[in-house]
Structure formats: structure tokens, C-alpha cells
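haha ok so turns out i had the wrong file open the whole time. this is the CORRECT one, sorry everyone. sequence first:
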Amino acid sequence: MTDTVLITGATRGIGLSTAHHLSDQGFRVVGIGRSAPDTEFPGELFLADLADIAATHSVMDAILARFEVDCIVNNVGLNIVEPLGDVQLDSLARVLDLNLRVSVQVAQAALEGMKSRKYGRIINLSSRGALGRAGRTSYGAAKAGIIGMTRTWALELAPYQITANAVSPGPTETEMFKRNNLEGPGAEERRQEFLSGIPLGRFAQPDEVAFAIGFLLDRRASFVTGQLLHVCGGSSLVSSAI
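then structure:
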């Protein structure tokens, strides 16, 4: 049996690595991205700006007209680094919207099909940032919200044999992470600050996060639901857990 997995934010970073990994594992991959990747996409790709509610609705209609979605990886997100005194309310709204509203809207669109088939897998991408980091008011709130949302879905959807889990990457060498943290003045100091909080002493690679996502999507992981899987090199061990 070939499961169809829908990945948001599928054309860059963790999303693209996940698409390649799941394709290699035999999944039929359907991706949503704002722009095409620089390399060939390993499946069906739909271009849409998920920051737009109407565009999200339209692209989900187009996908569900062609595919029965068995699995969802809610990966798309946004991080705007601002200390509390500088947080713009527009920035706060944008970060919460792209991380939370999109996850809800995508899951809602595919939910009736999953319920009718009595099968589904939902993976929501949280972050080590949910445990707190300076400058991450909006992002930390959004990613902590992902955890609570995932646990709620796990309870609601269990009667339909649909599992919901969250994956929480630590600092991962994606373009977004490097742009937000490892460029500009003080980049080397920030790099060393990050590494000092990671017991394994290095950043994660996107394919390592993809492997964890693949585990939770495997049909043999059918008794795992409502869980938060840290992929963080041990950095969550030096923070208070949620």
C-alpha cells in the first residue's frame, strides 16, 4: 500500500529533505511551496502562498481533487527575531498565522477523508525555540502552541485511528536558520552561543529531522500519538520541558 503524504513548506530546508526521504521510503509525495526548488522535486508540487487564507483553501481543493491524503507534515513556518520591546504586532500576527492557522486549515481540509478511511498521520513541526530563547516572543509562542494543538488533536482523532505527533528540531542548518542567526555582525559569537547549548556540539542537518518525521509516519508507529519528539542533539535536556 502506498500512502500519500502532503508536506507544506516543501521546497526548502527540512520540508525538501523530508520530501526526498519519504519518496525514498515509498510514499507518494505531494508538496506545497511558495516557489519551486532549485532541484527536481520528488513528487507532485503545488505552488501557493499559504500566508493567504483563500490561496490555502484553493490549493487544498486542487490537491484533494486528485489525491487521497493519508499523512500530513505541517512544516511551513515563519520566524521573525525581535526582542520584546521591538515586537511589531503585525509580525506577531504573521508568525502565529503561518505556524498555527495554516496547520489547522490544512488538517481540516484533509480530515474528513482520513476519518472515513479510519487512518491518518499528522506531524506538526514545533521547535526547540518553544522552550524559550531571547528574541523569539512570536516564534516561541507559535511553536509552543503547536505542541498543545498536537496533543489536543491526538485525543480528538484517536477514535478514528488517526495519530498526531510533533517533531521539535533543535538548531538546524537550513537557509532560514542561517539567515536569522548566522549572518551579519556578531555571527560567530551567535554560532558559538548556539553550539554551547547543544551537548552533541553541532547543528542538526535537515535529513536528520526528516528521518524522525519518517519514523512517526511509518504504519508500524501506529501506537505513538500525542508525543513530542525532540531532534535537538540533547539541547532540550538543558531546558525546562513543556
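The helical segments are 13-24, 53-64, 89-117, 137-157, 175-181, 187-196, 206-217.
again sry for the mixup
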